[in-house]
Amino acid sequence: MEIPKPRHPNIVEFAVYGRYALFSDILTRAGGEKTSYAVPTYEALKGVLHSVYWKPTLIWYIDDVRIMRPIRFARKGIRPIKYGGGNDLAYYTYLEDVCYQVRAHFEWNPNRPELAHDRNENKHHNIAKRMIARGGRRDIFLGTRECQAYVEPCVFGEGEGAYDNGGIVPYSLMEHGFTYADEAIREEDKGKLTLRLWQPVMEDGVIHFPRPEDCDPTLMRHIKDMPIKPFGEGTFSGLAEFAGGEADGMDD
Fold first, then answer.
1. Distance separating alpha carbons of residues 218 and 47, to the nearest angstrom
2. Rounded distance, CA 53 to CA 49, Å?
């Protein structure tokens, strides 16, 4: 398969890797013994980018992910804390020795008109690339807090991947992610928390993600009502950071 070419001018490309990952299957969460999906979810990779660089002015879109190492599972005994006190015993099934190449881009958040003055594409793009080169602004993890990970710049498609000649591999129904009210694009999703499901297909190690609003609407469910918290005077103490000018120096 030919590696897809970038479709947006403000893309970022990075590798994220770690000893373990846990992209927990939503069907296993309720039982207390978590099992990872075989491939990362859109939401988990978006979370990595949020740890690298995030501003409410923009929305990150994950375009593609490339699986660089063989998919291997490892089962570990865990003693999670019980809500009523004490510890319990559970078995978690992790992915082991993972590495992914990720391509993403950002677009302005139409639900944040109060931050329209911060829509400087060149500024945010350059800051995001610098933060990737520095390993991110916050701790990076893959799916869950105990799965520490690391990011570094890469060129998407370079290097040898474990499934470069693996053909087409379809996966069963899995989580795509959540649409929060402040990032909702479809009118019917506004003011709601929406769960998205999908059936990914990996071709020669690469998975292309649809945009959240382009997921199959029959596989979306509204979980609950969710108001949008406004950013403005009296609601956000750091609003001056988005005013431009000298405040931009804080992003370095």
1. 25
2. 6
Kind and range of the H or E element at 170? strand 168-170
Question: What CA–CA distance (Å, rounded) separates 103 from 12?
Answer: 6
Distance CA(125)–CA(37), nearest Å, equals 31
Candidates 229, 230, 212; CA nearest to 220 is: 212
Burial class (CB in 10 A: 0-12, 13-18, 19+), 136: buried
Which H or E run contains 58? strand 58-67
CA–CA separation, 60 vs 58, rounded Å? 7
Q: Which residues of the chain are modeled with pLDDT < 50?
A: 237-239, 241-242, 244-252
**Residue carrying structure tokens 């499901």:** 197
Tens of pLDDT, residue by residue over 93-120, are: 999 999 999 999 999 999 999 889 999 9
Instruction: Give the torsion sign (CA, 44, 18, 55, 230).
Output: positive
- At position 19, the amino acid (one-letter code) is R
Please give the CATH number for the structural domain made up of 12-247: 3.30.70.2660
Q: Cα–Cα distance between 32 and 34 in angstroms, integer?
A: 6
Say whether 14 sits in a helix, a strand or coil: strand
Please report how the helices 42-52 and 121-133 are oriented relative to each other, as an axis angle in degrees rounded to 10: 90
pTM recorded for the entire structure: 0.86
Domains of the chain by residue range = 12-247
Mark out the alpha helices in the chain (DSSP H runs): 26-29, 42-52, 121-133
Provide the 3-class DSSP secondary structure of residue 131.
helix
Tokens of 176: 């795509």
